[in-house]
Design brief:
The protein has 182 residues and is mainly α. It has helices spanning 2-23, 26-34, 38-65, 83-99, 111-129, 132-137, 148-181, and strands spanning 75-76, 79-80. The termini are far apart.
Length: 182
Amino acid sequence: MAYSWFILLLTIAGIAFILLLLHGTSLGQAIHEGIPDRPRRRLFVASVSFFLTFAGVRAVVFAVLHNIPPFHFIQSGGRHIHHLVFGIIILLLVGYGWLCDVGVGTDGSSIFMSRLMSILYGAGAALTLDEFALWLNLRDVYWSPEGRSSIDAIILFGALLAAGAWGAPLWNWGRHFRKAGK
């Protein structure tokens, strides 16, 4: 169980690092200026978090299966706790936070909380969808051919997040281009 705390601390450190990059640096300022629409900024941050979490989780599972310390499966009472459980918990907390208008920009909600909620949403979605095949098959098919449905779910939802972040500006650019050509 000690290693599960290590993974939790590693996750918290990763989130803190991303927030640090976004909050007080030129990268954060560039994102804020380049994507002035707050909902689209949240989609962008969530999509980056989503893909980074997916890559990180796949790397950790690979390390567990190849006995690379300090990684191992999290167990409680002899039962394997799949990472989709943590993803669902995170999604429930973020959903509740957004129902309470945390980080949505109303009533002076901070940019920091907006980014934190977006990062957590992307991470929770990745943790959950990475085991989408488990939902369908009700058994662990992670690295088997049946596990491909998890990759498909990741690609589809990741594309949805990316399209939400980038689709509107590209659509507007295309509309502006067509008007200029007339």
